[in-house]
Amino acid sequence: MHGPASPGWLLVALCAATGAYCLLRMRSSVEEQRRTAGGEALMGFGMAAMAVPAAVAAPPRWAWLAYAAVFGAAAVRTLWAARTSPHHVHHLMGACAMVYMAGVMAESPGHHVQGGSGVPLLTGVLLLYFSGYVLRSGLRLLPMATAAGGTGTVGWADRPELSQACRLSMGIAMLAMLVTL
């Protein structure tokens, strides 16, 4: 992605750590949680790969097209699940945002793309959506964090406050990636 190298590497580390935790969550005994964690792991690792600073490794155009294809397939798969769960609608938005960012990077891997002045409309809409998601996720995390003190022996895969913190982290990372677009 565009932007300075240091924040880019921090973004890579955040997204990779989030993806790794989501892989751990796939060991849950609840099938729906395993499925959700798999999609979130894909998103975390995909965001980590896309966030590698362009000054260090500028992927060729075909790599961006491969990202678009992978997340396009994830969007189609998520579209089916989104008809029953509002959380899957968010996964659909995330996958579509990744397709959009990969498409922009495929068109202009070395410099910013803006038709005229200001922020492109779709980027602005995605920024608004993810800003709202981050605020809502942060507010939902507060009661979970205070209630988590007496949870007893809940496994790492079934900690709702940790999965919510991962979603919050990925939402913030998505905002950072969209801002640099």
Give an account of the 3D structure.
The chain is an all-alpha fold and 181 residues long. The protein has one domain (5-180). The chain has six helices and no strands. The mean pLDDT is 83. α1 (5-25) runs antiparallel to α2 and α5 (121-147) packs antiparallel against α6.
Q: How many distinct beta strands?
A: 0
Give the overall shape, derived from the CA principal axes.
globular
Q: How far apart are the first and last residues' alpha carbons, in Å? A: 7 Å
Instruction: Give the domain tally.
Output: 1
Q: What does the main sheet amount to?
A: none
Helical amount among residues, as a percent range?
Answer: over 70%
The secondary-structure element order is HHHHHH
Low-confidence stretches: none
Mean pLDDT across every amino acid position: 83
Number of helices: 6
Question: Per DSSP, what share of the residues sits in E-state strands of 2 or more residues?
Answer: under 5%
Rg estimate, integer Å = 17 Å
Which key terms come to mind for this protein?
mainly alpha; single chain; globular; 181 residues
Helix and strand arrangement:
Blueprint: H1 5-25, H2 31-50, H3 61-82, H4 86-107, H5 121-147, H6 160-180
Helix pairs in contact: 1-2, 1-6, 2-4, 2-6, 3-4, 5-6
